[in-house]
Amino acid sequence: MRIRRTVVCAVAALAALPVLSGSRPTSFIAPIPSPAHVVIVVEENRDFSQIIGSRAARFINSLATDGKAALFTQSYALTHPSQPNYLMLFSGSDQGVKNDRLPAGLPFSTMNLGASLIESGRSFAGYSEDLPYAGFNGPVHGAYARKHNPWANWQDSPIRGIPASANLPLTDFPSEYDSLPTVSFVIPNQDNDMHNGSDPEAIMRADKWLEEHLGTYIQWAKAHNSLFILTFDEGRGGGNNQILTLFVGQMIRGGKYDTRINHYSVLRTLEDMFGLPHAGGSASAKPVDGCWIVTPSASPTSPPAPESLRATRTCDSRPGGRHGS
Q1: Cα 213 to Cα 208: distance, rounded to the nearest angstrom
Q2: Helix, strand, or coil here: 143?
Q3: Are the beta carbons of 282 and 267 closer than 8 angstroms?
Q4: Coil, strand or helix: which one is 64?
Q5: pLDDT band at 3 (very low <50, low <70, confident <90, very high)
Q6: Greatest CA separation found in the chain?
Q7: 91 has pLDDT over 80
């Protein structure tokens, strides 16, 4: 079958890629760039070994072998279950949340990526599949789950808040990618993020969804000074929590990178891209380096934020900051 031949070729190509040191390559280390746009997709509850080399993840494996992709072979989630990992990726802390239930003490007022972007004059939005309308703050709707939407916990907070207008349904994701926020998250619903169902069908469904919904953006990013990040919230319970993380974009030096990274590393990298303060655990994390190249279109600053995604608040301080969930 054609699909099988494609996957076999992709896996063979992946095995042939050199493993590069992400922290100290012997050649010149390009500085962390400031992409025009960054889109981050978070998938659910699979180990690295369940995805890379899997025939069920045809599209993801093709991304991993792309000449403009950095595959991180030593990427790890930080805990179990899901919700604390999302919070750590977004804010450098689990905010005291140890489970998937609705957090207490909302809205939070601690430092977070979205608020830091907005306060710096850039823009942020989260796009969640099955969110019924902008600013919806209920626990579930269809296959949408609030536990996978960390920015909702800061919605309309008077301190470091995220405006309801930045908590958006996936149907609001723009088709003109130049109009994307500086940084955005895309969260598939639980039917399409590998959360629900059994393998290999759950992986195949999520892989197809990713190609259909983000495939054109990924190709666009490779020619428009933009970046795509794919990661997972956590691995299977009982394992070592090794997950797949890959970056694809115009500014990427393609290859496999064996530097150990985690959610704090990814957050620190995003913060350093745009000169933002470091939230919580990201302050002591090392940013991802070694995979960047200098591109002619690279710009030290991002385009102005759309008015609908801006806020007038200012940052008043800079504090340090299971399978099936």
Answers
A1: 9
A2: coil
A3: yes
A4: helix
A5: very low
A6: 59
A7: yes
